[in-house]
């Protein structure tokens, strides 16, 4: 990695999202050169490219994360929505795939959505469905509610299905999350005994983060895409988890 590429990576990590044109102007090279740099950095797993911009890998901004593998996430969300029955109450956790799921369900007036995501609640303010936003400490970077008050609220609501987002999975660690407070909320959801469904594109598998989502036995189902490696498929099935893999 040369000095220009190091500067590009630092700027993207600082700003979370930077356009190709701005990177070219800042570094004093052509946009063609910037695109070549970004291709290299993406191949090294250091950032993510979308049309006209580069994204930091660890962004908590839902709008930014939604742009990564957007078409795949739309398919996952559409399939997940088909599993929800009319009149059902479901919990939807934070994250881009879950936000798309909420949008699919929003047009069905008989459904009640429980969430900790301020982002999702705002997206559904004009929707037909009933929305319950749980209270707690407002975590600005993820636009979601966390902390002991959120966990207390969870004790007093009931739902038949819970759709959970993850940040990583390995066979020896199970499912993991980047943020400790959000992981605590998810673990409280898992403990309620609903049908717990992981909704995540295959890019999350193979990553490991410090906060475990446990126990693994509480996970009923995983919905992901065709890019999921065969060894991960076998591991999930061996752990008694139903696996729904969507084709291209």
Automatic annotation (TrEMBL):
One Pfam family it belongs to: HTH_DeoR
Protein name: Transcriptional regulatory protein YciT
Alphabetically ordered keywords of this record: DNA-binding, Transcription, Transcription regulation
All residue ranges annotated as the HTH deoR-type domain in the record: 1-56
InterPro entries: Carb_Metab_HTH_regulators (IPR050313), DeoR-like_C (IPR014036), DeoR_HTH (IPR001034), NagB/RpiA_transferase-like (IPR037171), Tscrpt_reg_HTH_DeoR_CS (IPR018356), WH-like_DNA-bd_sf (IPR036388), WH_DNA-bd_sf (IPR036390)
